[in-house]
């Protein structure tokens, strides 16, 4: 099942995602996203708008290649492993605007993917590691 996100929010400028260590290809192969980069802006904005309804993300920067953990079971022939779940950790810097302030958030976004061998599902956890704010 290919998931496509409808863009509800203005799309942020994406920086550094050409060094994503093939994460985009993995997610496409498992049928999770055709292009996860287009999902990021909407996903992060949706999370942040729970606290600040007028937040706009201007830029998302990938700070380092993502880390991945993959889990699965060995097939009966014991030659292949069927991948069932994956966690991908992205270290990001989001530049956003709220009211008359510009903020920069260093984020750790963990994508938790299950059902990769059947019907993929995604949950995520987002952690703010650092925040800087300045008036416009």
Molecular structure report:
This protein has 136 residues and is mainly beta. It has one domain. Helix content is 15%, strand content 48%. It is built from two helices and six strands, in the order βααβββββ. Strands 1, 2, 3, 4, 5 and 6 form a six-stranded mixed beta sheet that branches. A hairpin with a 6-residue loop joins β5 and β6. The chain is elongated. 21% of the residues are buried. The N terminus is likely disordered.
What is the strand content? over 45%
Classify the secondary structure makeup into a structural class: mainly beta
Integer-rounded radius of gyration: 16 Å
C-alpha end-to-end distance = 43 Å
Low-confidence stretches: 1-6
- Compute the number of helices: 2
Shape: elongated
Number of domains: 1
Q: Approximately how much helix is present in the residues? A: 10-25%
The chain-level mean pLDDT equals: 88
Number of separate strands: 6
Please describe the biggest sheet, giving its number of strands, its sense, and whether it closes into a barrel. Answer: 6 strands, mixed
Q: From N to C, what is the helix and strand string?
A: EHHEEEEE
